[in-house]
Design a protein that fits this description.
Length: 221
């Protein structure tokens, strides 16, 4: 960032430039993160100039209160920023003040009393067929031994092919392997349920049992 970017805040420009150099050289953040953080903190300085009625100084940063940071975030929301963008802005300013504290420049922890906006919870998205197949290949490639890869593939096929929860799949033992086409699993609140077991799932389980070098008991995994 050049000095021409913030002509009205000469007292803060060296601090900002040092932090940006730190992000690039030591933290090696992505160009996207660097640009976003730079805009966020520069926008915060612009807000302070309007909020304080003068060019902000290092002493002003030292004396900021939680209510001052909240006023800035409220302004950003009024400007139409999403909750996620406001949360990122707050993260950038926190990182800037953390840098100042660690380098002995100033110590103001008021921003730590400011909560990030609540983000809407996103429902998990199921894997498509291509991604599911790739995950099976990946676990086999990264396994330290072939039988471990077979084990992980068996677990994943139980998740994908039978719709089991991860806890249900991990709680299965050899005695649970059915002879028919239905699998009995223990679900939430210790409720049993029956799920159909596809041939490909059964084949993956049998491959694991054949390749496993350990003598697994019937009540073992």
């Amino acid at each position: 960032m050049s000095k021409a970017t913030l002509p009205h805040y000469p007292a803060l420009l060296p601090l900002l430039q040092s932090w940006l150099d730190y992000l690039q050289v030591e933290k090696r953040v992505s160009p996207h993160t660097f640009d976003a953080y730079q805009r966020d903190v520069a926008g915060f300085f612009t807000f302070l100039a309007e909020y304080l009625g003068k060019a902000p100084s290092q002493a002003d940063l030292q004396n900021l209160r939680p209510v001052d940071f909240r006023s800035f975030l409220a302004q950003r929301r009024r400007q139409g920023l999403s909750a996620a963008s406001v949360a990122r802005t707050l993260s950038a300013i926190r990182a800037f003040f953390k840098f100042l504290r660690r380098n002995g420049i100033l110590n103001n922890d008021a921003i730590n009393a400011v909560n990030s906006p609540k983000l809407p919870r996103r429902l998990p998205r199921p894997l498509d067929e291509k991604s599911a197949k790739k995950s099976l290949i990946d676990v086999a490639d990264f396994a330290s031994e072939a039988w471990i890869g077979d084990r992980d593939i068996a677990v994943l096929t139980l998740l994908y092919g039978c719709g089991l929860r991860i806890s249900e799949a991990l709680n299965l033992n050899r005695a649970d392997l059915p002879s028919g086409d239905m699998l009995r699993v223990m679900g939430k609140r210790n409720k049993e349920r029956l799920v159909p077991i596809l041939p490909v799932v059964r084949a993956a389980i049998e491959t694991y049992l054949e390749s496993c070098p350990h003598n697994l008991p019937m009540q073992g995994p």
